[in-house]
Amino acid sequence: MDLSVIGAGIAVLSGLGAGIGIGIATGKATEAIARQPEATGKIQSALILGAGLSEATAIYGLIIAILLIFTK
Amino acid sequence: MFRLETVTPIFSFSIGGFPISITRDIVVQWGVMLCLFIASVLLTRNLKRKPNKVQVVIESLYSYVEGLVKQNMGESFINFIPYVGTLVIYLLTLNLIGLIGLKPPTQNLSVTAGLAITSFAVINFTAIKRNGILGYSKGFAQPYFIMLPINIMERVVLPVSLALRLFGNMLAATMLIEMIYNALESVTWIAQIGLPIFVHGYFDLFDGTIQMLVFTMLTIINIKMTSEHH
To answer: What domain range includes position A63?
Structure first.
């Protein structure tokens, strides 16, 4: 049994932090939109930018997992 | 089963002992550049004062890029509008080529690394030009002298993270779409026709656009912050 497969599985666990972080940020963004609906455009662009940045850390884990599985 | 294939060059020659190989991604990028050049020459030929429909679309694209630059960088950076506009159009076209049937070139790490190195060069040369070499090297030691290694690391990690983010997102999207096609094919041949539209719509359109926006916004904000730190 190859140990690199287990390593790939552990590497993908880094998506946990990204999911929780983006979920909390989206909750706060919807609260802000509910309080002040005329600022929806700016709040939306800030949310999308922050989600894209925070998802990069989850993608790093995915790249390591792909490298471990598909190359010897 | 999906296998990562090695990149084999179509054509390879060497200039003075330095090997240059033309791969398939480079040829696709040349095709994209040619199409964008021809489109831009044809569409801006007869500009009138009362715009017709095509001109309205082009003007709205220009005012979108101008709004981005003016809101985030201020008035003194107005001559960056051509560079930002080029990044927006070029990256969007490269990411959306997956809709036609070719593999997007941004799933090759060399392509995204080239774009990230270009942004890194623009950011640092702007800082040097606006502050001089002395002000630029003094900016490394701010606010305390102990932060010198952290500042250097932050400047170097930025293009690495830009390249890896774009590469990882595009690679994951392409692999998932291929796996879905393979799974549908093993069910029956007809199932491949209608169902993957939603998958393409999410992965190619939505993901490609968002990654382009993140790359552009990070470049813009870093140009402003690196040259105004001092």
So the answer is: 25-67
Structure tokens at A49: 């930018």
Residue A1 placed within a domain: no
pLDDT digits (tens, 9 = 90+) for B36-88: 999 988 887 877 777 788 888 888 999 999 988 888 888 888 888 999 999 99
ipTM over cut 0.85: no
Q: How many domains does chain A have?
A: 1
> Can you tell me the distance from the alpha carbon of B167 to that of B201, in angstroms, rounded to the nearest whole number?
19
Kindly write down the DSSP assignment for every residue of B87-145, as one continuous string.
HHHHHHHHHHGGGTTSPPGGGSHHHHHHHHHHHHHHHHHHHHHHHHHHHHHHGGG-S-G
Phi, psi for residue B176 in degrees, rounded to 5: -65, -40
- Give the pLDDT of residue B191: 66
Is A11 part of any domain? no
Q: Show residues of chain A in contact with B210, CB under 8 Å.
A: 48, 52
CA distance B36 to A55: 31
**Pair B211, B95: CB distance under 8 Å:** yes
pTM over cut 0.90: no
Query: Nearest C-alpha of chain A: how many angstroms from B178?
Result: 15
- pLDDT tens column, B25-49: 888 899 999 999 999 888 878 777 7
User: Is A72 inside a domain boundary?
Assistant: no
Is A15 inside a domain boundary? no
Strand ranges, E, within chain B: 11-15, 18-22
Residue with tokens 């070719």, as numbered in its chain: B102
Contacts of A59 in chain B (CB under 8 A): 164-165, 168-169, 172
> Please, which pLDDT band fits residue B194 given cuts at 50, 70 and 90?
confident
